[in-house]
Amino acid sequence: MKNINIKRLKTTLTEYWLLNKSKLISIPVVVVVLYVLAMFWYGTPLFNQLLFRTYPDSNAFAEMLANYNGRQNKELILFTIPLYVILCTIPYFKLLTKTVYGTMTPVSRGERMSTLWAGNLVIIFGILLSFFVIDLTFTTIMKSLYLDDVIAYRESVGDLFYTFENRTYFATSEREIYTVVSILSLSFACLYQLSTLFFRKYSIPLFALMLLGFFYVAFKVFEALYRDVNYRFDTSEISFHAMVVLFSIVAIGVVVTTYFKLREKEIY
Amino acid sequence: MINLENVCYHYRKGVPILENITTQLQPGHIYGLLGLNGVGKTTLLKNIGGLLFPRKGTINIDSFSPDQRDVDFLSDIYFVTDQAELPDWKIRQFEEVYGALYPKFDAQYFYSLLETFQIDARKNIKSLSFGQVKKVNIAFALATNANIILMDEPTNGLDIPSKTQFRKIIARYVTEERILIISTHQIRDIHYLIDHLLVLNHSKLILDKSIHALQDSFYISNKPTDAEGAIYSEKSMHGTLSLIENLRNEESQFDIEFFFNALSADPSLVNRVKPSKANL
Amino acid sequence: MQFNNEKAIYLQIGEYAMDRILLEEWRAEEKIPSVRDLASDLEVNPNTVMRAYDHLQQQEIIYNKRGIGFFASNSAKELILKTRKDHFLNEELTLVFRTMDLLDISIEEVNTYYQNR
Q1: What tens digit of pLDDT does each residue of A156-170 get?
Q2: Which residues does chain B have within 8 Å of residue C10's beta carbon, measured at their own beta carbons?
Q3: Chains C and B touch (3+ CB pairs under 8 A)
Q4: Are B74 and B12 contained in the same domain?
Q5: For A182-234, how does the pLDDT look when each residue is reduced to its tens digit (9 = 90+)?
Q6: Which of A138, A220, B276, C27 has a CA positioned 20 to 30 A from the CA of residue A164?
Q7: Which of A100-109, A190-199, B54-63 has the weakest average pLDDT?
């Protein structure tokens, strides 16, 4: 990718930013709101406590906190990643492939691709970071407020070595989630962006097909992660690395093809 | 120089829009691209700009091929569309973001043109009317100081005072290095600015001559006696205009619209153009 | 400027320039508008103005100082008056005489009108 000029790159970045400013700024807000909604979802203990005071005394509350490990799948929030990628890509590609001024602007494909990927990375890691921060904040608050009570409660029933478990309100999401989601998100972005450029006709059905395949893999992975609480990736470290390498090769191939496809659209 | 060789284009197979268009366009001129609605004027301009790719034939502009969309090529060309679509930003923002990309861009000139067009530079493009957006686009185009400016029906949607301003500004823009190609069917709007005619008719370029060459070959007379035996004539309440061969080597004023009507009525008219003078 | 549909534009521009010189709006030995300025004022292609200026140069009504611009020559006014006078006497008068013949008007009749003007 020759021809990356800083001045022009600044222009394409500004262009992308002005197009998607409100969406990008909304990322932390949306993530936090969704997280809070998930934690206080209808029917969960926290919801009941807030609205109906189900657990009248701190002991009962502590008991619930100690035993409840069916907390909502807060990780589902991370599905906002593909949503944001789509929302931010659509106007940008419209600019590049449907407007005269977007096509005639003297910028190189390298600058456009770099901008596109800067956007992708900001979205993906913006959401992951926001999620991480709110997750950490929430669990830290819960711990500082109630962990002592819970420990005291557990001791009273004979458990002297209480450490909270994975799916309680005290536990942050597993580290692996971040790696897996990063890989899947990057792959998604690659595939989505190539397919909208590549498939002139039927791009929606073909992309839907690709997406189905993607989701199938994603769910299989999630399933593997959550089937057994003690499941760790260690035992299949080699296959994990193989997966990373494979995805990387596919990703690079896809990105390169997208790069070349960028200039091939006629503007009717 | 813009070089087109046997350029063919069709949107759907079997419906040719451009067939074997061959021409060389030289800097220092304002080309008028004429033709009836839908004949392919916009298509031709888009091929030159690299927005569409010729199905056959080649286009070469100073060793660039427009369909490659090289950055260096794009830095020296601007396409003013009929339907002006500009982003929904403040005018100032638009100028700052995109002006920086054109090496010869003159921001001061841009703002002075806006003033001439009576557009408040502090406004947001979103709030402008169709005609005003066009004016912003035209102002920006000229401010890039690009060597090639393609304009598709630029006066369409402009109010009368703006058309006057447009003419004055365009007359000033021409230099020895610059080419302007203006497509229009409102010939009267830019009548005296054009110095070379390109006429499209049924997907072919039937005329590619300078006004000077045409004036050498044809005389437009308003004497009613000349109507008989004229190549073409039109009666109006002002009298009769007749197109006759220029046998006396006199030059008349050249009414392009009248000539275009004559040409549309009989395209073979072209064969009567004297080959003597070189296409300026 | 409104162009009539008779003479070629560049000739009409030439006449326009000559009018300006006669009216002393453009003075002898002074710089006249540049090609582009005049083109912009009259809303015509600069090449056309160039043709007009070439034509005027040939008649020695204006001259070009390289790098500076065009100037009205010293004898411009006289030259213009002479050309126009010639044109009147040789061309416009011929038309008048023709009309007179057609309408059977005598020169004495015309003279009467002339004396009473």
Answers
A1: 887 777 777 777 778
A2: 251
A3: yes
A4: yes
A5: 888 888 888 888 888 877 666 667 777 776 776 676 666 666 655 554 445 44
A6: A220
A7: A190-199
DSSP secondary structure letters along C24-62: TSS-BTSBPPPHHHHHHHHTS-HHHHHHHHHHHHHTTSE
Rounded to a whole number of angstroms, the distance from the CA of B127 to the nearest CA of chain A is 17
**According to the model, what pLDDT value does residue B280 have?**
46
> Candidates 1.10.3470.10, 1.10.150.20, 1.10.10.10, 1.10.3720.10; correct CATH number of C9-75?
1.10.10.10
Q: How far apart are CA C7 and CA C48, in angstroms?
A: 13
Domain extent for B226: 211-272
So what's the pLDDT on residue B141?
97
B127 contacts B90 by C-beta, under 8 angstroms:
no
Q: Is residue B74 part of a domain?
A: yes
Cα separation of C35 and C13, whole Å?
Answer: 11
| A96 close to B69: Cβ distance less than 8 angstroms | no
Closest by CA to B273, choosing from B232, B242, B245, is B245
> B252 to chain C: which residues are within 8 Å by CB?
5-8
Helices B91-99 and A6-39, interaxial angle, to 10°? 120
- Most distant CA atoms of chain A, gap in Å: 76
Question: Chains meeting B at 3+ CB pairs closer than 8 A?
Answer: A, C
Contacts of C42 in chain B (CB under 8 A): 171, 192
B69, A103: Cβ pair inside 8 Å? yes
pLDDT at position B35:
92
Tell me the C-alpha distance between C1 and A109, whole Å: 48
- Best of B29, B253, B254 to substitute, by most chain C Cβ atoms within 10 angstroms, is B253
DSSP state of B158: -
- Domain C77-115 belongs to what topology? Helix Hairpins (1.10.287)
**ipTM of this model?**
0.85
Which among A100, A106, A107 has CB closest to B85? A100
Same domain, B233 and B137: no
Write the pLDDT tens digit of every residue in A41-87. 877 778 877 877 777 777 777 777 777 776 667 888 899 999 999 99
Looking up tokens 């589902």 gives A76
Reply yes or no on whether the pLDDT at B247 is more than 60.
yes
Contact B101 A105 (CB under 8 A): yes
Task: Please tell me whether residue A198 adopts helix, strand or coil conformation.
Answer: helix
pLDDT tier for residue B6 given thresholds of 50, 70 and 90? very high
- Give chain C's mean pLDDT: 90
